[in-house]
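Thought: the user wants the 3D structure for the chain below. I'll pass the sequence to the structure tool as-is, report back what it returns, then summarize two notable features.
Action: structure_tool
Action Input:
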Amino acid sequence: MPQYFLGVDGGQSSTTAIIGDESGRVLGIGRGGPCNHVGASEGRAKFVNAIHASVRAACSEAGLEAGTVRFVSACLGFSGGPADKQAILGEILASDRILVTGDATIALSGALAGEPGIVIIAGTGSIAFGRNAQGRTARAGGWGYLFGDEGGGFWIVREALRAALRWEEGWGSPTALRAMLLDSTGARNINDLMHRCYTPEFPRPRVASLSLLVNTAAENGDPMARKIFSEAASELALLARAVGSQLFDPQDSARCAYSGGVFHSRILRARFRDALEREPGLVATPPVHDPATGALLEAYRAAGKIAYGILSRF
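Observation:
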């Protein structure tokens, strides 16, 4: 009798489900809408629809009939945390075991193919998470945009806005960031843009997306943009080292994978690597797999079925 395993990455923009068999072979991948909030009634409906849509699509690609498959093990990771989702998933998923966890856990498993180490995630926000060979875990950051998220997209844009405001008010250095931010948003001036960022017109993901402009400015040699990216890289390296100090002996070498949209920047990746490897202990590395594959690996791990490794595709 074939055995099936399910991994799900549920995020703020989309949901990805991935199904594997008992040999570690990926059979199908499916996608659905966002599913990170379930508090309000409409949030619950979106959550259920996103899970159903992504699992159905994965089943279809795998040649399985959705609704009739019972999984040996399922792991689902969410950016909003697991607390308000476990009971709902128990009602809508047929699985012998259901593990619900945060997005950092599945990002780590995917990025390092299940091996011990650290993942530093920098998207809209930032967080570092790690696990050692004994299974002990630790985290640093992930405090949200009010109290942390250093080096994340929102933080980068906030620093860019501050630099542009200083110049606009006559107490900062000239920077190309001011003109680029105004051209992109249509704001009258940076003060106007700042106030718009307090309104629903500019939710956090939209603000964070402006970090692409900061990268362009840095690529073009703008000193302020380059300074912001250097500081972002240093903050992210600090988060990674904070986790490393909790899990690994200083004389040991551990891998630190980087993940998230901020690391698409060539400049930031290079400066992060320099900042991280300035001291011995951690080695920066690109991710091996995505978080959805990490969720599938965690589903296998929960069932004690296979050792971590590279999964084959079809």
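Final Answer: Structure generated. The chain has eleven helices and eleven strands. The chain has two domains: 4-112+289-313, 114-287.
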